[in-house]
Amino acid sequence: MDRRTFLGAVGLAGTGVLTGPAVLAQSGGDGYDTIRVPQDQKTVQAGVDAAASGDLVLVAPGTYDESVSVTTPDITLRGRDRNGVVLDGGFQRQNGVEIEADGVAVENLTVRRYRRNAVYWSGVVGFRGSYLTAYNDGYYGIYAYDSRDGRFEYSYASGHPDAGFYLGRHHPYAAVVSDVVAEHNGMGYSGTSTGADLTIRDSLFRRNMTGIAPNTLDRADPPQRASRIVGNVVYGNDNRDAPSVAHTFPTFGTGIALWGGSDNLVEDNLVDNHENYGVVAHHNVVPPSGNVVRNNVVLDSGLADLALGTPAGAGNEFSGNQFADSRPPGIQEDASQGSERVSEVLNAQKRDVDDGEFPGGSYREQPEPGPQPTMRDPEVDPIPARKGASWGS
């Protein structure tokens, strides 16, 4: 079975995270202390506060009704069992884990029911989230803002009004999102004003309002450009019962939306069963330009499998895709002009937002996920929180 067949089978029938071998890609060495919660410190926050740079905070199974703030660089916060170690916000606390220090990894635990974000890095160099479950939080799931040199992997995010996985507001970003599952979110992945050495790959995005959406939302930062979206399964992202916020709804019903994005590569993805468009490039703040959409299989889209709105910038290319129809017609022969009909549909959804009439369910009432694959050996040495360090091969 080749990779596409495997991803397709998981995307249409699977229920768990796309997993890889839990082996070290890089050794962190043994020059660290392990602080055990609750044996050494009673709370997760106390364990983090007791850690020095390089240390491992290892949390035993249990439900921890607390928020955690990390300000010490280069520590690893790890649960002993991904499904059994639960940080619970009770729909009262703001953020689950908030990190404002370089080189921090968060691994192998569940974060749920916070009013804002599940796991949140801000303004850091070096980050990693591995084997995380985030669900039914009030804004984002697994989130890095104004940061670079990091990785999200083997993780699951559902029930967030904005994005399950988000990387934003920095360019170049130098990051990888791989082997993740996002469902029941406003967007599966969102990347605002970011790109360059940024890859979203080998992951499953299903039953969100929008699947994958690199985007430009305003002129505060340079436009979004140069992300790679490769080898993903993107299925059925037209879920009107998913939670949403105003700026996520305009791309509703689309698998991959290049929303004011430029110089992106969309390659070797399976994009199936969307109410509006399979893959669309559209003006938002700036026109889409220089995007390459090639060698994808795009099926069963309600309006068009491949689409380009107007006004369109120069250099967009659609080639080698398997699809049924496109707007404008003949998009693989000539993508120099966009389709007014595509823009009419998406602009109508923008007007719904302006009128306050867009759909969306409560983040508190989204389906709870089943058990997710946990780390094989939670006692293993830490590895760095960097883009190049992974628990996969």
TrEMBL record:
A Pfam family found in this protein is: Beta_helix
Q: Which domain of life is it from?
A: Archaea
What range(s) does the Right handed beta helix domain occupy?
229-332
Q: Where is this region: Disordered?
A: 317-393
This chain's protein is named Nitrous oxidase accessory protein NosD, contains tandem CASH domains
Task: Give the organism the record lists.
Answer: Halomicrobium zhouii
